Amino acid sequence: MTASVEHTVAGVQQILAALADPVRLEMVRRLRNTGVATPCALLYDGINKSTATHHFKILREAGLTERLVLDGQIHQRLRTAEVEAAAPGLLAAVVGKANREAGEG
């Protein structure tokens, strides 16, 4: 397993800006709900790969996710512990609300 260069968690404005986009919020929601590193293709619907790559970059730059290569396949991992340390309760609140809106919470 290899990981990309790890970023620190950004400030709250950059985190909220990253989560404000519905596609990125859905990616984070799926990652939080699975609780494990997940293949990129399982984290989005209805967009092309290059657009997804752009969204993953924004999430990574905000310090929300990291890119992993597992058995030659690219996965994303939500940096839950790191985000919780930097912004306690933020992910739980935002993803909890997104789950309720999606009828999953």
UniProtKB/TrEMBL annotation:
This is ArsR family transcriptional regulator. It comes from Mycolicibacterium grossiae. GO terms for molecular function: DNA-binding transcription factor activity. Pfam families: HTH_20. SUPFAM superfamilies: Winged helix' DNA-binding domain (SSF46785). Residues 4-98 form the HTH arsR-type domain.
